Amino acid sequence: MTIVFVTGNARKVGEARLACDAYGIEIEQKALDIKEIQSNKPQEISEHKAREAFEVIEKPLVVTDTFFHIPALNGFPGPYMKYVAEWFTPQDFIHLMADKKDKRIMFSENITYVDKNETKFFSKEFWGVIVDTPRGKGNSIEDVAEFEGHTLGERRAQGGFSHKAEDYVWIDFATWFKAKSHNVDKTQ
Predict the structure, then answer these.
(1) What's the structural domain count of the chain?
(2) Contact 53/109 with Cβ under 8 angstroms?
(3) pTM metric for this prediction
(4) Is the pLDDT of residue 161 over 90?
């Protein structure tokens, strides 16, 4: 079993393989330059990106998107995380949160699968807190977003991924994809 993963991000491919290898699913990476639409709805962005990629390669594929949601900041940065993380420093996030009692942050990991007949969306949320001192070697928000005692930046600095393989949304995808592939094989 093979699935095309449309991304230029080697870290994301590593995360996918970490989970999918256990299910016998091979990840074939394909980098495409696809323009992302602007929307406040993460699923809409991901689905559009997946459909655009499918029009180019005409094979079943997946795309991923991640989003950060800070309740005390009305959900900011949401789907704009990629840009905000480039513009802001870790200290900028700390300043934004300085007078907030609610320090929670949610990291949403999303996979969109598309083929000629269907589109399927997988999503998983991870809740953590914004810390007062940056730690690690990630982008700005990764150095202040702590989950299970470590910032994402610390995990990156240690050569690790954001979460344990068994916690990834990739497990949900792999379980579904393996069953789907198994059912297709039975009908042929």
Answers:
(1) 1
(2) no
(3) 0.86
(4) no
